[in-house]
Amino acid sequence: MPSISLTRHLIEEQRLGHVTPDLRLLLEVVARACKRISVAVGKGALGDVLGEAGGDEASINVQGEAQKKLDVISNEILLEANAWGGHLAACASEEMEHSQQIPDAFPRGNYLLVFDPLDGSSNIDINASVGTIFSVLRCPEGVTAAEDHHFLQPGSSQVAAGYCLYGPSTMLVLTIGHGTHAFTLDREQGSFVLTKAHMRIPEQTREFAINMSNQRHWEAPTQAYVDDLLAGKDGARGKDFNMRWVAAMVGDVHRILTRGGIFIYPWDRKDPSKPGKLRLMYEANPMAMLVEQAGGAATTGRERILDIAPTSLHQRVPVFLGSKDEVDTATRYHLQHDSAAA
Ligand code: AHG
Ligand code: MN
Ligand code: MN
Fold first, then answer.
1. Where does substrate bind (predicted)?
2. CB of 120 shorter than 6 A to ligand 1
């Protein structure tokens, strides 16, 4: 069987009417940028890529988080690649307070791209997995100058979503609304090769992922749900659960797409002004689309993530995603708690 490259896969999807020529080419540009990020990440201590950005004066992004050099490098690679692509109206990123329009001098298109250029960046300095997460939306009709509010569309409007995982191998996982497919970078050939078409997340699981160190800050239904997981065979769930935490959402979601599980970053009381840690537009929404397209589910613990009407570019949300039955169970704990309290 000849191998199927990302390019061939997308051309076939175009023939089936699943993707426009412009979106296909935009995804090729994103994939090319991810290859460059993969090279930068892979240099490790041999390149000038590790550590904090900004030297002595640590640079802080719009989230109030310290930027790593690779956060900045990855952001620039994505911006530069897309400026010349000709398929975008504007870009937005975790690392930029506002969206950036494609400048007048460059060719412009009808899509909006939003990304987390480097997810899990605290893993960089320990040589563990990191990734890039991206989401593509349509620019509303008639808009000639795209601004932040044009990005504020529910996740169900995404026309494509994906991530690139920089692990022992580099993998691109993509959906255009017709299944979730995984491609592995062939480093010799320089192309992404389809290695798993139509990924399916098992509906049931015995594995969960949550940062347990925040346990005391969680709300009651999250506490109750995780208590029952920990009680194992002797508790209400009647089975033992294992736990994994990569500290990079891309890594945890990739494991879940591969063998099932539930990933949770709940609301907590650590900073009550923040409704969760993860960002809706470039973490929760693209991952929710990938997971749903693989037969899984994604909620805030109460509502479907893809139904949320965003109110700001860097909005945070609680995230429960993965194996469908498990996400439904976790969501039920929260909804039952709410109706008992009402
Ligand atoms: P980023 O590096 O883009 O800021 O994202 C990090 C996120 C996510 O990838 C991961 O699941 C989570 O933060 C890890 O949080 P803890 O530090 O609480 O483990
Ligand atoms: Mn992230
Ligand atoms: Mn990031």
1. 119-122, 211, 277
2. yes
